[in-house]
Structures are given as structure tokens and as C-alpha cells.
């Protein structure tokens, strides 16, 4: 009588392992036979372990005809490896996660401007993530792909004590491979649900930008050239680093920079500009900080005590008074610190800040708010316009009053983030503080608390004003510190 058992066939080649389980007839002579036509080596040079060829037959030795061979080979599936990764994060156990991440892994969280490259960098990121949140905040996997052995897709959300956390849905993609007998993550990308959802407004903005580029092809060429230039600048910086494995290896083979594109020429072009910037006395800049803050307080006082208006009940009218009073204070003050005093008069600085900087900044801030989810409609138009003008005073107008339309200065302050003097620090930190504050202020808007201050743009305005005020205070601290350091070195 013949007994059938399912025995796995192991193919070993390279660093990969494949399994097949054909039905094999076990005879009483303790030999199991199978025609060689059913077992084919997938690669040249592949070896069958524990097998020997006899004529046209392959013979597998077995000491027990009823024994079965384990098919697991201690190798986790790709999906289970990703599950272990999330389980380790939830348990705050980085030691268990470390072995799952490959040495040269690349991890992209689209919230951050650059990917994390290498196991150490990724573990440091998750260590900071764990330290910054409560243990009660856990990843919950909604769905995960099981079929592929080298690629896994996951949809997930965060839960706080078993309850869904707002704005925490996300999806992740992982690519894995078997390294030293263990399946590890080579690449990961996280896409997280945005706190604000622009909806149809985003399509409107995209349609408008597309129309603009079609009408003005030269503008598209300039944007393309600018992208290539800054990409070259970034890659040139990468090329200075010590070569190694990982993300940089794939980026370095890039056409060399032309002489005019090379950053050294840019540094030479701006060398004299940076030399001309000095650190002003804190006592000279203190009135600027105090007056800007007092301008906002005066605006609220005028709105409430003279016109009996509040930002919650009369948002548009209150914002109008706020930006009008702040403009009367802020624009003349910053015009006193204009850098080109020989070529630009005090009046001209006021005019360029008012007629150019204020509307341009309002347009950029307004479009940015709409793209990020600000409501669109006739009933919101006045509120959005006045809020955008106030944000323009916090961000664009100071730079326009001090530096005009000079691209070198604007890039140094806002894009390159390397302020070279006291005035730069004030403009840079207060502007960034206002934008970050407005972003945090928008968080309560979608929540179902049903409070009147959650409506647009009340909480966003409060957040922007708080962030702007913090930026002023912090910038004054940096002004004092840099002034002391600068004069200590001079002595």
C-alpha cells in the first residue's frame, strides 16, 4: 500500500530561497522518487541539497516515511515583518525594531523635507517620535497586503486609548529583501492625512497655475531652470560628503555645474552684501519690537472700545482695523531700517512697502490659505482678504520696506534661512512665527467642539498673532546674544 506525503522541495541559489511542495509517493524501501522533469533548477549553478541524480530520477533520502519537512525555514513573511515593525513602535521597543531595518534603509515621511537615510538616522527619528507622544497613542493597522514577498502596502490610523485620533489616517509603502537570512525593510514611505483639506479649491488653483504657464511659456522655463539650478546646488553639497552606501550613491552621478551655476560664484556675488550687514545695538531695535506689539494691542483696543467690535462676532471689521492700525505703525518703523539709504528715501521705502509688499503678500497668503483648506465663498471673501492683509504685514511688508525687491536679500532671509544681521533676524523669526502660529491655529477648525471661535479665520488669526509675538520676543533675544558675541570677537 502506498502512502502519500507532502514534502517541500528547497531550491538554494544566490541569497534567495524558494519552496515547492509536490505530492511524492513514499515506498516501503524508504526512498521517495520523483521524475526530474518536475524539479527544474531556476538558475544555472543552482544546487539541490540532500538529493542525488540516478539516471532520470531524483532520490530524496528519508529515515522515516511518515516524516514531514518544515516549510517555514524561520523566515518571516513581508507582511509579518511590517507588523512586527509597528508592534515594536507601539511598545516603544526600538531594540526589536532595529533588526528589521536594513543598514542602508531609506525612510521618507512626507511631512519632512528630506528622507532619513541609514538605520541610525531612522532609529533616531523614531526615538524622538516616541519621546514626544504619549504611550497611549498607538498605530492601528486597517489593512495590509499579504501576497508580495518584497513589497507591502499598509493603511493605518492612530488611536488614543482605543479611540480614533483626529487627522491621523495614513498609508505606508515598504520594500523588503532577505539580508543575511532575515527579511529587512530597505525602503519606506509614509503619507499622512493633512489637517486641512483644500478639496475643490486645490483643483481651482492648479487650473489657474496651468492657465498662467500656458499663457506665459517663458515663466514656465524660468521655473524649470530654477528647479534645475537648486537641484544642482543640493547635489553639489551632497558630493562634498564622504561617499558611502545609501541614498547619496544614487544621486551623485549628475551633470557638473556650469561656472555661473556654481555656488562659489554666488557666494562671491553676495560677499559684499553680507559684509555690509552689521549687528545693531539691542537698545536701538527695542522700540521696533515694542511698537509692533503695541500696534496690535492698539488695534484691538480701537475695535472694542471705539467701534464695539470683537473678532468673534465681527471678524471682517475687526481684522480691517487690526491691519490698518498695524500698517500705520509697522511700515514707517521698518522703513527707518532700509538698507539702501543712499538710493532709497524714507518716503520711497514706505511707498514700496505699501503699494508692492502689502498686496503681493496678501495675494500669496490668501492663495496659500485657500489651498490649505480655507473656505471659499462670498460670505468669507471679506474675512479672507483682511486676514491676508494682516498676514502680509507679518511676513512680506517688513522685507519689502527694508530691502525692496532685491532677490539676493529675500532669498537669504526666507529661502536660505541664514539671516546675516539684526534686522534679518527680526524679519525672519517674526514671519516664520506668524506662519507657524497660523498653521497651529487652524487645527481646532474641523473639530466638532461647536465653539464660535473655531470659525474661519478667528482661531487662525489668534494663532498667527501669538506666533508673531513669540517671534518678536525670540528675535530680540537673538539680537542681544549676537551683539554680545560680535563685539566680544571684535575686542
Rounded radius of gyration (Å): 32 Å
Q: Write the H/E string, N to C.
A: EEEEEEEHHEEHEEEEEHHHHHHHHHHHH
What's the N-to-C terminus distance? 103 Å
Flag low-confidence runs: 1-72, 228-277
**What does the largest sheet look like?**
7 strands, mixed
Category from helices, strands and their pairing? alpha+beta
Q: How many DSSP helices?
A: 15
Description:
By secondary structure, this protein is α+β, with helices and mostly antiparallel strands. Helix content is 51%, strand content 17%. The protein contains 15 helices and 14 strands. It has helices at 78-90, 94-98, 119-132, 200-215, 217-239, 247-251, 263-269, 271-276, 282-306, 315-335, 346-371, 378-403, 407-415, 422-441, 458-490; strands spanning 3-6, 9-13, 16-20, 23-26, 31-35, 51-54, 57-61, 101-109, 116-117, 137-144, 151-160, 163-164, 170-179, 182-192. The strands form 3 sheets. Strands 8, 9, 10, 11, 12, 13 and 14 form a 7-stranded mixed beta sheet that branches. The chain has a 5-stranded antiparallel beta sheet with strand order 1-4-5-7-6, with no helix packed on it. A hairpin with a 2-residue loop joins β13 and β14. The longest helix has 33 residues, at 458-490. The model is unreliable at 1-72 and 228-277 (pLDDT under 50).
Amino acid at each position: 500500500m502506498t502512502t502519500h506525503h507532502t514534502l517541500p522541495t528547497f531550491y538554494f541559489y544566490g541569497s534567495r530561497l524558494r519552496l515547492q511542495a509536490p505530492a511524492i509517493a513514499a515506498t516501503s524501501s524508504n526512498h521517495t522518487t520523483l521524475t526530474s522533469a518536475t524539479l527544474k533548477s531556476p538558475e544555472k549553478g543552482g544546487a539541490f541539497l540532500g538529493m542525488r541524480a540516478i539516471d532520470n530520477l531524483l532520490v530524496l533520502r528519508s529515515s522515516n516515511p511518515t516524516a514531514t519537512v518544515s516549510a517555514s525555514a524561520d523566515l518571516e513573511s513581508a507582511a509579518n515583518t511590517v507588523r512586527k515593525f509597528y508592534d515594536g513602535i507601539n511598545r516603544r521597543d526600538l531594540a526589536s525594531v532595529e533588526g528589521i531595518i536594513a543598514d542602508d534603509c531609506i525612510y521618507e515621511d512626507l511631512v519632512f523635507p528630506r528622507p532619513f537615510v541609514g538605520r541610525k538616522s531612522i532609529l533616531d527619528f523614531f526615538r524622538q517620535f516616541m519621546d514626544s507622544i504619549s504611550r497611549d497613542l498607538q498605530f492601528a493597522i486597517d489593512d495590509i497586503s499579504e501576497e508580495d514577498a518584497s513589497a507591502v502596502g499598509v493603511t493605518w490610523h492612530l488611536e488614543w486609548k482605543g479611540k480614533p485620533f483626529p487627522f491621523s489616517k495614513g498609508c505606508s509603502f515598504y520594500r523588503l529583501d532577505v539580508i543575511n537570512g532575515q527579511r529587512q525593510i530597505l525602503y519606506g514611505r509614509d503619507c499622512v492625512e493633512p489637517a486641512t483639506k483644500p478639496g475643490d479649491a486645490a483643483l481651482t488653483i492648479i487650473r489657474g497655475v496651468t492657465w498662467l504657464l500656458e499663457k506665459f511659456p517663458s515663466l514656465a522655463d524660468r521655473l524649470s531652470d530654477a528647479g534645475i539650478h537648486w537641484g544642482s546646488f543640493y547635489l553639489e553639497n551632497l558630493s562634498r560628503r564622504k561617499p558611502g552606501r545609501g541614498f547619496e550613491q544614487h544621486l551623485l552621478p549628475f551633470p557638473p555645474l556650469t561656472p555661473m551655476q556654481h555656488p562659489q560664484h554666488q557666494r562671491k556675488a553676495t560677499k559684499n552684501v553680507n559684509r555690509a550687514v552689521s549687528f545693531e545695538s539691542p537698545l536701538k531695535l527695542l522700540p521696533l519690537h515694542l511698537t509692533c506689539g503695541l500696534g496690535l494691542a492698539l488695534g484691538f483696543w480701537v475695535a472694542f472700545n471705539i467701534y464695539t467690535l470683537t473678532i468673534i462676532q465681527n471678524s471682517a471689521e475687526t481684522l480691517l482695523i487690526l491691519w490698518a492700525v498695524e500698517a500705520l505703525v509697522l511700515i514707517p518703523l521698518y522703513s527707518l531700517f532700509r538698507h539702501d539709504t543712499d538710493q532709497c528715501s524714507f518716503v520711497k521705502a514706505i511707498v514700496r512697502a505699501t503699494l508692492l509688499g502689502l498686496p503681493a503678500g496678501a495675494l500669496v497668503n490668501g492663495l496659500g490659505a485657500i489651498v490649505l483648506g480655507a473656505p471659499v465663498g462670498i460670505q468669507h471673501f471679506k474675512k479672507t482678504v483682511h486676514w491676508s492683509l494682516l498676514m502680509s504685514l507679518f511676513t512680506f511688508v517688513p522685507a519689502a520696506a527694508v530691502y525692496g525687491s532685491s532677490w539676493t536679500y529675500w532669498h537669504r532671509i526666507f529661502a536660505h534661512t541664514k539671516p546675516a544681521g539684526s534686522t534679518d533676524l527680526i524679519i525672519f523669526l517674526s514671519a516664520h512665527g506668524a506662519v507657524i502660529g497660523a498653521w497651529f491655529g487652524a487645527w481646532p477648525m474641523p473639530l466638532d467642539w461647536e465653539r464660535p471661535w473655531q470659525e474661519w479665520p478667528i482661531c487662525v488669526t489668534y494663532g498667527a498673532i501669538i506666533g508673531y509675538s513669540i517671534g518678536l520676543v525670540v528675535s530680540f533675544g537673538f539680537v542681544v546674544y549676537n551683539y554680545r558675541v560680535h563685539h566680544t570677537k571684535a575686542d
